[in-house]
TrEMBL record, chain A:
Entry keyword set: Signal
Keyword Signal: yes
Gene3D superfamilies: Periplasmic binding protein-like II (3.40.190.10)
GO molecular function, one term: thiamine binding
Signal sequence extent: 1-23
Organism the protein comes from: Deinococcus phoenicis
Protein name: ABC transporter substrate-binding protein
From TrEMBL, chain B:
Annotated GO CC locations: plasma membrane
Residue ranges annotated for the ABC transmembrane type-1 domain, each copy included: 51-247, 322-508
Transmembrane spans: 57-76, 88-110, 130-151, 172-198, 231-250, 271-295, 328-350, 357-377, 383-405, 487-508
Family classification: Belongs to the binding-protein-dependent transport system permease family.
Chief place of localization: membrane
Upper classification of the organism: Bacteria, Thermotogati, Deinococcota, Deinococci, Deinococcales
GO annotation (BP), single: transmembrane transport
Protein origin, superkingdom: Bacteria
Tagged with keyword Glycosyltransferase: no
Key words, A-Z: Cell inner membrane, Cell membrane, Membrane, Transmembrane, Transmembrane helix, Transport
Topological category with respect to the lipid bilayer: Multi-pass membrane protein
Provenance organism: Deinococcus phoenicis
Pfam families xref list: BPD_transp_1
Protein name listed in UniProt: Binding-protein-dependent transport system inner membrane protein
Keyword Hydrolase: no
Length: 351, 516
């Protein structure tokens, strides 16, 4: 009797699993792997599916760094047909690993040259954002200090002990900030800056969430300066208690702190994976990500700027400023992993 | 000719063992094979330091848990305490709380400007206090329950006899009850040590760079730096440590809770003061963070508010999150109950320590290394529903085994014999004796497995898809965005998860479940 019950259960489980597997076997499925923050209006995706007679299956590949490593691990049996979310800091490794099949979308013509990722079309820029220091207006005012004016100011004890940044080794904004400092100071100078800042009280957390949600004074932490994005002040307004789009506040509780050499332009792109089972549909998806509907939809979902020029932005973006960013030296983005390793040895584990 | 019990046991345990081979041993081996094992990493003082810290923090947690949980369990087993069974039952809740929820609660209470640390002006930033308290939050319940099991098997008449012969209460406890309950206490100590040494989410969220454990380093090396050969060396070292500790644990273990003696006296004077202090301490550590999360979901910047709950309840995605959570939870529950019961029956019949040890493996192996193994070994199955459910089942079924096994071992053999003597066939004897006596444990184990799976953040093990978002994923995503509404809504979702875990206990468990 007992065994019979168990047998029935086994049968039922098998049927359920088989049913679930069967439901996935629809014809012409396009698989798109993305980073975890990816979000787009489902209606737009439904339109794309209808227009191309395809079912789109999105797979979450972890955060940006994890996503790349998972693609490298599985390059012999690719997980997907297209990938969205790799950025300019990861493109060199993606190129080296031979992950991507070149395809230049016609829509790329509407993306300003400064925002294009590469000429071959391994990645087509969908959006861009600025990794930037933010500060908590109220908490900073309480310190009675003037705002720091340069990275040299920031490493001094009075400012370093007010600052928290996510680690370059385990977070993508952290990596971008590391590259910005290397670009600004050169390698040796950057290690010296980081070491001094750390000695003077700069806090390094693992991920962005730890820094922003726990240590940033706006969210109950002790540090009024945090490394985040230039769009975060707009997101603070959007996600504030009692947000009403018709009654926008005078200013955001936080603001960006554009110290020269501290910001980094992050370009996120979409591309076709080598070994894709549906290469033609994957190319259509690349075009779709650069189409007007998607471009207008993503800013308030992912807090980034649309790459195609002339796309209308939600009014809440008036609370975010775009810094002037100098182009980064090619040597800085050539092999970011080497710089991370050097940072780990020279700064994080230095005694 | 009927097969020997040992053979029957191994046959019964075949499906779960095969499952462990396919979902654990093979992927793990695949991970180790991918990049080779670079043992030289163990000469690096940095990683030796990580090993020392991993062992150190786990030992500290286990000692603290023993210091608080041991005496409390002894007093609970010797005195009539109102609400005793309720307390023991509620203590299962922290054990199945999702890590993120615990982190939210601990930070709300003890973080910078926390509700406790703020007014007292204590700054715990840069200390491992939160990490150790987090470990205790999850593991004090394990210690109290296992130690209670150990002490309750020591008959009060034995300590009573010692008292009659002139020993003081303390002396009776130390010279009579303690030696007899020692295996239970040691087993609790080792289990707490293991859970604390291997926990991943807590040190990741609360340890920062400075207090990273081996498991966190394994994660960094695999997920971010793709240095598989170095990660593999750490995995191998950690596995060696784990298997040694687990083997010791399995040898020490005695199953079952003793029958509580009737007519226990009420504690008085100093003993009562000590008892209630310990109860208060355990309640504070184990339920404080949970209450803080609930409160945080109801308190806005401008005082009490229902806005976060309204936000969660009106979000068009919430029904999907809830539906997925329940769907995956129930599917995994069926798998876990089935495999767990088979494994327990097999290990019981075969009297095999190997099977016993095997059932603990899924709780002991680094999920990070498994995740890589799944990608490498089963690329075609990644991001498919069967893989997701299988991964959830792997996490849940050991809890069923560990719950049913002690109940089976505690079955009085003579009862079965009596049934047979009275004319019952083998099947009928099992149906009328084995099943009713082990059903409560099965229900308890199933409740634990379900609650664990409900709160599990599946993405650690397998690639997921947006349409499979669960409550934990919704919580995690909100924590990934700026703004107070996101934090408040995350706490409201955490409350929903806790309510679900509580509900699964109420529906499934009669309060008899014990995990060992």
């Amino acid at each position: 009797m007992f065994k019979q019950v168990m047998f029935k259960n086994a049968l039922r489980l098998g049927l359920l699993l088989a049913g679930a597997a069967h439901a996935q076997g629809a014809p012409a499925t396009l698989t798109v792997i993305t980073h975890d923050s990816f979000d787009v209006d489902r209606k737009l995706v439904a339109q794309f599916e209808k227009a191309n007679g395809v079912r789109v299956r999105f797979v979450k590949g972890g955060d940006t760094g994890e996503l790349l490593n998972r693609l490298i691990l599985t390059r012999r049996a690719p997980l997907a047909d297209a990938v969205y979310g790799l950025d300019n800091t990861l493109l060199p490794r993606a190129r080296q690993a031979g992950l991507l099949e070149p395809y230049r979308s016609p829509n790329l013509a509407k993306v300003p040259a400064a925002y294009r990722l590469d000429d071959a079309g391994l990645l087509n820029t969908v959006d861009y954002g600025f990794v930037a220091l933010n500060y908590d207006r109220a908490a900073f005012a309480r310190t009675g200090l003037p705002l720091p004016k340069s990275l040299d100011d920031l490493k001094k004890p009075q400012y370093a002990r007010l600052t928290v940044v996510p680690s370059p080794a385990t977070s993508s904004p952290g990596l971008a900030f590391l590259l910005a400092t290397v670009n600004h100071y050169g390698e040796a100078g950057a290690w010296a800056w980081w070491k001094e800042a750390r000695t003077n009280g700069l806090k390094v957390t693992r991920g962005w969430s730890d820094a922003y949600e726990k240590d940033f004074s706006k969210n109950g932490g002790r540090y009024p300066i945090v490394l985040s994005y230039a769009s975060s002040p707009a997101a603070e307004v959007f996600y504030a208690d009692g947000f009403d789009p018709r009654k926008l506040p005078a200013q955001s509780p936080t603001a960006s702190l554009f110290l020269p050499g501290s910001t980094f332009l992050q370009l996120e792109g979409v591309g076709v994976l080598k070994g894709a089972k549906q290469p033609a549909l994957a190319r259509k998806f690349v075009d779709f990500m650069l189409s007007g509907g998607v471009q207008a939809d993503i800013p308030t979902r992912m807090w980034v700027y649309p790459a195609v020029s002339g796309t209308r932005l939600d009014p809440v973006f008036k609370f975010a400023q775009q810094p002037d960013v100098l182009p980064v030296k090619a040597s800085v983005t050539a092999n970011p992993q080497r710089l991370v390793d050097a940072w780990v040895t020279n700064v994080l584990r230095a005694r | 000719m009927t097969p020997s019990p040992a053979l029957r046991g191994w046959l019964l345990a075949f499906p779960p063992v095969l499952f462990i081979l396919l979902l654990l041993v093979l992927p793990l081996g695949r991970t180790l094979a991918e990049g080779g094992v670079k043992l030289a990493i163990w000469q690096d003082p940095y990683f030796l330091g990580r090993l020392a810290w991993t062992v150190g923090q786990a030992t500290a947690t286990a000692l603290l848990a023993l210091a608080v949980g041991g005496p409390l369990a002894y007093l609970l087993s010797r005195y009539a305490v109102p609400g005793k069974s309720m307390l023991l039952r509620l203590l299962l809740l922290p054990f199945v709380t999702p890590t993120l929820v615990a982190v939210l609660g601990l930070t709300a209470l003890l973080g910078p400007r926390g509700w406790l640390t703020g007014p007292l002006g204590i700054d715990l930033d840069g200390t491992p206090t939160l990490l150790i308290l987090g470990n205790l939050f999850f593991n004090l319940p394990v210690m109290v329950r296992l130690a209670y099991g150990g002490f309750s098997r020591v008959s009060p008449t034995l300590t009573g006899a010692a008292r009659t012969l002139g020993a003081s209460g303390l002396r009776a406890a130390l010279t009579v009850a303690l030696p007899l309950a020692l295996p239970g206490l040691s087993a609790g100590f080792i289990l707490v040590f293991l859970y604390s040494a291997l926990s991943f989410g807590l040190p990741l969220a609360l340890g920062g760079e400075r207090y990273a454990t081996l498991e966190v380093e394994i994660y960094t090396l695999t997920a971010y730096q793709l240095r598989l050969s170095e990660a593999s060396a750490l995995i191998a070292g950690q596995l060696l440590l784990t298997l040694t500790a687990t083997w010791t644990y399995v040898r020490l273990l005695r199953g079952g809770v003793g029958v509580p003696a009737p007519g226990l006296p009420t504690a008085r004077g100093g003993v009562a003061a000590l008892l209630w202090t310990l109860v208060a301490l355990v309640v504070l550590i184990c339920f404080g963070p949970l209450l803080a999360v609930v409160a945080r979901g109801l308190l806005g910047t401008g005082g009490p508010t229902l806005a976060y709950w309204r936000g969660v309840l009106t979000d068009p995605d919430t029904p999907l999150l809830l539906g997925n959570t329940l769907r995956f939870g129930l599917l995994a529950l069926v798998g876990a109950a089935l495999l767990g019961t088979l494994h327990a029956l097999g290990a019981w019949l075969a009297r095999s320590r190997t099977l016993d040890l095997l059932s603990l493996l899924p709780l002991m192996v680094s999920p990070v290394s498994l995740a890589v193994g799944y990608l490498l070994a089963y690329p075609a199955l990644s991001a498919t529903l069967p893989m997701l459910i299988a991964a959830y089942t792997l996490l849940g079924f050991p809890l069923v085994t560990r719950s049913v096994l002690p109940a089976l071992r505690a079955l009085p053999p003579r009862t079965l014999e009596a049934a047979r003597t009275l004319g019952a066939g083998a099947l009928a004897a099992h149906r009328t004796v084995t099943l009713p006596l082990t059903l409560p444990a099965l229900r308890g184990g199933a409740a634990l497995a379900l609650a664990t799976v409900l709160g599990e953040f599946g993405a650690t093990l397998v690639l997921t898809r947006p349409e499979w978002a669960t409550l934990s994923v919704g919580l995690y995503e909100r924590l990934g965005r700026p703004g107070e509404r996101n934090l408040g809504e995350a706490c409201a979702l955490a409350t929903v998860l806790l309510l679900l875990a509580g509900l699964s206990f109420t529906l499934l468990d009669g309060g008899e479940g014990e995990v060992t």
